[in-house]
Amino acid sequence: MNRFCRVSFALLSFLSLGAWVDSAAAKSIFSFNGVGDTERRVDVRARGMGGAGRALADSLNFSSANPALLAAFSRAGLQSRFFVQRRSLNDGQRRHVVSDGDIGAFQLVLPVRNGIVLGAGLEPLTDLDFDLVRTVSSTSVPYELRVNATGGIQAFTIGLAHGWGRFLLGGNLSIISIGTIKETWTKDFGSVGPDGDLRSVLLDSNNRQISEHLNSEDRYVRTHSGAQPTLGAVYRRGGKWYFGASFRAPATITQTRILRNFFAEIGFEEETRSTLDLKMPASIGVGLAYRPGYRWLAALDFERAFWEKTEPGRYNTTDLAGGVLYRLGDPDSRRTRRRIELTAGAHYRSLYFKTGGNSQIGELGVSLGISLPFETRGAGSFRYVIEFGRRGDVTTHGASERFVMQTFSLSGWLN
User: How do residues 239-258 score in pLDDT, each as one tens digit?
Assistant: First the structure.
């Protein structure tokens, strides 16, 4: 069964998107491709602004995309979030709808002495949500193939930053050792009847029945280990303008694959282990933020990730985001009850996935958010963000996907 293990991984990692679309009933065909759909490593406020905020060093930004942002914090804080998402896939003939949700991430900020700030967090790097149901009738023994893959790669991130006047510098290390990818491959053998439907019996070459059921099931658990460093810097000018930049170094992580084969009909069970090196891309990002006063704030971000160097056929990706924030209430920090924040933004990003027609998949989204302070002065806030977006095109890529994501966040402070 080692051969099947290699073949199955190749199918997930190397087959083009278009090869699956004609006969697939999928949760999200825009998330498999080996490691899944990459997560945007920004905090919830930045999500409400389209994903921008790489330069915004105002002691409220928990984003790990730029570790230099840590240096702006003067008090300890913690942010956690939960998200739910609804995806609707259209393959040109029918729609498939699925909903999922999970605890997203948490970030802890802890200022220490002499302007040094420590940060720690747990966050997802990729998300995997893929289903396939395909009838294979061109072989002498037809069967129905079912594939289900869930999970993703997560990292424990630790960071350190320091400020020197207008300049903030920082770095972090994402220790990849938590997230898993789980897959189940099931072959349901049978025969195709005159109407094209798959029968539940297996026939030999003389059309004699062999068995009512002779199915195979292969289960994979993929764990990961490795680390990826990031460096960042922020320059503050006049208290209104902020300029930020970050660089994430390329990294190679080790994927351990555990294969378990189950054949209930003949009582056979086997487990095999193998390893594979996965390459994570280098990326560079820049950001600009403008805060003229208490009421308004605007930010613009750009990021480029070099996925083409990780595997043939993949695309380099671009992420462009921009948004605004408007704050209600009184600037007096002692009056928090009406200090409500409203955010809005938009983003465009291209995806690294291979495609059958050599046309890169794009994603376009808009977001709206609101933040409500706790009644206890300075204790923290509750934030809600909703995002609407679309990936792919039916004509070009064979399928398109619409998504609605809701994110809930709690932020707390220690004075």
Answer: 899 999 999 999 999 999 88
